[in-house]
Specification:
Layout: E1 5-10, E2 14-19, E3 24-29, E4 32-35, E5 39-43, H1 45-49, E6 58-61, E7 64-65, E8 68-69, H2 72-86, E9 96-101, H3 107-118, E10 126-131, H4 132-139, E11 150-155, E12 160-166, E13 169-176, H5 180-195, E14 197-198, H6 201-211, E15 222-229, E16 235-241, H7 242-266, H8 269-278, E17 280-283, H9 292-300, E18 304-306, H10 313-323
Parallel strand pairs: 1-9, 9-10, 11-17, 17-18
Antiparallel strand pairs: 1-2, 2-3, 4-5, 4-6, 7-8, 11-12, 12-13, 14-15, 15-16
Helix pairs in contact: 4-10, 5-6, 5-7, 7-9
Bound molecules: adenosine-5'-triphosphate and magnesium ion.
Adenosine-5'-triphosphate is lined by residues 11-14, 67, 156-159, 179-181, 205, 208-209, 212, 284-286, 288-289, 311.
Length: 340
């Protein structure tokens, strides 16, 4: 592959970009703040700081929803902003690009990821896509070209992708609309019901990171959160227990595990044997929930291998794919848009 290669993972929550020239990974919130409908006010982590806090003339939004690009114009603007940031303000011509796409979505939705880079007019030498489960697997150090079956479970923010791969290809993949955002919503709702306290999604995410435990936690583990009391309308602080957070997310975790079982049932027996021997590979930012691996083992009887840096396995996989000649052939060019 050429001298300059870029990898791109446009996640619902976080955008991750890799540059081979600097061997750097940029990981920021995939968020844009637009002032007066047309001016980029801020982007990335800085824009996220304003989320649910901005005045009416500033719109803060996430252009990727449920794993697919919902707002192409803002996604293109954001891609250009991050691209320049990664390059110290410069546009590099003649480079190669590889962008990750979810597997269980339509061809048109896959093509949109490719179009974001095509439309950035970077005079790219080549643009390819790679299926996220394949990139995840490479990012976790799996020999994806071997004839062995592997199960990859990526629990991100809006989505969970459960896949079985073998021989460098996808055997089965299911994208379900459950992930970190749903956990945050469930936390907001239980805190409101139990304490008449309305908390924002960022506060919910914070307590989740502090307290979420997939197994029954100790009563004494607590954290403080802040919000508005529904009855008095006044700001209020409240101590929240890990037990309450466990109660909020438990059902959602079980629905993910039910889907894992469903995919296992549909997997051809020879591959099931491989998965049994090696265990499930768990990744995605939400894999950081304490004891999630233990819960999955309890429910499925399978060993669980945790990714080292779960939010970045896709981009680290892409980085390896675009820089390792033996891994060529795992990427492809999506079909042209079909206008009918
Ligand atoms: N330690 C942690 N415990 C629980 N959740 C976590 C932890 N760290 C990150 N998360 C959650 O992980 C999610 C982000 O993960 P990730 O970066 O994999 O998502 P994404 O790639 O943007 O989303 P998607 O793959 O769904 O498009 C957020 O919902 C965040 O709250
Ligand atoms: Mg992701």
């Amino acid at each position: 592959m050429g001298q300059h290669v870029y990898g791109v993972d446009l996640g619902t929550n976080n955008i991750k970009m890799y540059s081979s020239a600097s061997d750097n990974i940029l990981n920021e919130k995939n968020v844009i703040a637009i002032k007066n409908k047309n001016e980029v006010f801020s982007y990335g982590n800085e824009a996220f700081e304003m989320y649910e806090k901005a005045p009416d003339n500033i719109a803060v939004s996430f252009p990727v929803k449920f794993g697919v690009i919902a707002d192409i114009k803002n996604m293109e603007t954001l891609f250009n902003c991050f691209y320049r940031k990664l390059n110290g303000g410069k546009n590099i011509t003649g480079a190669e690009y590889c962008v990750a796409v979810p597997t269980d979505v339509t061809e048109v939705e896959k093509r949109a990821f490719y179009d974001v880079i095509l439309d950035a007019k970077l005079k790219a030498k080549n643009i390819t896509v790679v299926e996220k489960p394949i990139a995840d697997a490479v990012g976790m150090g799996i020999d994806v070209k071997s004839p062995n079956g592997h199960m990859i479970v990526d629990i991100g923010s809006d989505t969970t992708e459960i896949s079985v791969i073998s021989l460098g290809g996808i055997v089965l993949s299911k994208l379900i609309k459950t992930g970190g955002t749903k956990f945050d919503e469930a936390i907001c709702s239980i805190v409101r019901k139990k304490y008449n306290l309305i908390i924002g999604s960022r506060s919910a995410e914070q307590v989740k990171m502090q307290l979420a435990d997939a197994l029954e936690p100790d009563e004494s583990v607590i954290a403080t959160t802040y919000g508005r009391n529904i009855l008095t309308g006044l700001p209020n602080a409240r101590e929240i227990s890990a037990t309450l957070i466990h109660e909020a997310i438990s059902e959602l975790l079980h629905s993910i595990i039910e889907n894992i079982k469903l995919i296992l049932e549909r997997t051809p027996p020879e591959l099931t044997a491989d998965i049994y021997a090696k265990g499930i590979f768990l990744t995605g930012g939400s894999a950081g929930i304490l004891n999630l691996d233990k819960l999955i083992t309890e429910e499925t009887g399978l060993k669980v291998n945790m990714a080292e840096n779960p939010s970045e396995t896709v981009i680290r996989g892409i980085a390896a794919i675009v820089t390792t000649p033996e891994l060529e052939g795992l990427t492809y060019v999506p079909r042209e848009k079909q206008y009918s």
